[in-house]
Amino acid sequence: xxxxxxxxxxxxxxxxxxxxxxxxxxxxxxxxxxxxxxxxxxxxxxxxxxxxxxxxxxxxxxxxxxxxxxxxxxxxxxxxxxxxxxxxxxxxxxxxxxxxxxxxxxxxxxxxxxxxxxxxxxxxxxx
Length: 127
What we know:
By secondary structure, this protein is mainly α. It is built from six helices and no strands. Helices cover 56% and strands 0% of the residues.
């Protein structure tokens, strides 16, 4: 079957930390593909696990530029739109909107990490 986007993002992120060149054609092609899987403006769910947003976001953050800026805007809009706004679960994310078997606490923790990715670390290729 087709490659798993979450595994692809995690593997490429590990390769970035192992000093894969920033201008690697395979890295850039994969980054373009992963960026195309960002949640849409009207999406209320995602066919990938929340881990995908975290790994792909970190991967794209390391590359910086317009690709990451578009990704970040779409992911932030999606996460802000899907965060529970009322009731006992206010402020959390329903794990059922993602394709994973995570619980509410871990889904919320990963969503929070996705939202602050731009501020967590410097991009890997920046000197």
